[in-house]
Write a structure and sequence with these properties.
Elements (H helix, E strand, L loop, with lengths): L7 E5 L4 H10 L5 E6 L2 H13 L3 E6 L5 H15 L4 E4 L16 H27 L3 E5 L12 H20 L6 E6 L3 E2 L25 E2 H13 L4 E3 L2 H13 L1 H14 L2
Parallel strand pairs: 1-2, 1-4, 2-3, 4-5, 5-6, 6-9, 7-8
Helix pairs in contact: 1-6, 3-4, 4-5, 7-8
């Protein structure tokens, strides 16, 4: 039996990108998937793919910035499947603009609402059920949550908040049987780049990344799933951008700054 066979697994941001890829990676294990995002039509398409691959799949359209929406997501999961075993907080939004060029400061609040509070809210409602089954929380953070990244000030701040929250929660949960896995991807090929907010507060509509040079969502999902199965504390999906940078951050922080600047400039 695979690790997640028969388990109720909630994935937010499941309609596209890493969320969709993770659901499809999980599906052959025959879990009970709960797909959450705002786009109901896209969620239904992903659910159909997951069912064809072996999973049960329930679609629950959800805005993770709404406390009531997150409560309904958890209630619906437990109502249909009788449990909630794994919560994957994957919903996210990004930005691409220098701070001194930002015209619409409300984008900083939106990023915190989606990336940070959009993980806090579902976790709050899911936690009593996760404790019952000695379950698992997965937080999709970013390497931008471990270091500064130019043109991503608001995004990096929100992902730093994700790290702070879930690292603290992990300590609180010691002895409950609930494990916390934080995932820190490098640049990943997904819709988040096209939807990133520019200096005027509007989506860019196109990606500035060299999309043929960055990790696919499927590769990121495979690495995430491997870390989930091992209940790892931290999953860093890229050696050059992640593991090496963590070492350099301590001994040569200016080098990390230069690497971050170059990565954004080169789009890879």
């Amino acid at each position: 039996m695979a690790v997640y066979t028969g388990q109720a697994v909630v994935v937010t941001g499941a309609s596209s990108g890493i969320g969709r890829a993770l659901c499809l990676a999980l599906a052959p294990q025959r879990p009970r998937l709960v797909l959450a995002a705002r786009d109901a039509v896209s969620l239904e398409r992903v659910a159909t793919e997951c069912r064809a691959a072996g999973a049960e799949a329930l679609v629950v359209p959800t805005d993770v910035t709404s406390t009531e929406g997150c409560r309904r997501l958890v209630d619906r999961t437990v109502e249909v499947f009788g449990a909630l075993d794994v919560l994957v907080n994957n919903a996210g939004a990004s930005m691409m603009a220098r701070f001194d060029e930002v015209e619409d400061l409300s984008l900083f609040g939106r990023l915190m609402d989606v990336n940070y509070l959009g993980s806090v809210y579902p976790t709050h409602y899911a936690l009593p059920h996760l404790k019952k089954g000695r379950g698992q929380i997965v937080a999709m953070a970013s390497l931008a949550g471990l270091t500064g990244v130019p043109t991503r000030t608001g995004y990096a701040a929100s992902k730093h908040a994700v790290f702070g929250f879930f690292d603290s929660l992990r300590i609180e949960l010691e002895g409950t049987g609930v494990d916390v896995t934080i995932v820190a991807p490098y640049f990943v090929l997904s819709e988040i780049h096209r939807r990133s907010t520019g200096s005027d507060g509007r989506p860019l509509g196109k990606s500035p990344m060299q999309e043929d040079k960055i990790m696919t969502a499927e590769t990121c999902a495979a690495l995430t799933l491997k870390g989930m199965e091992r209940r790892e504390r931290l999953v860093i999906t890229n050696w050059r951008g992640g593991r090496l940078s963590r070492v350099l951050r301590v001994f040569a922080p200016s080098v990390v700054d230069r690497l971050a600047r170059k990565a954004v400039r080169d789009g890879r």
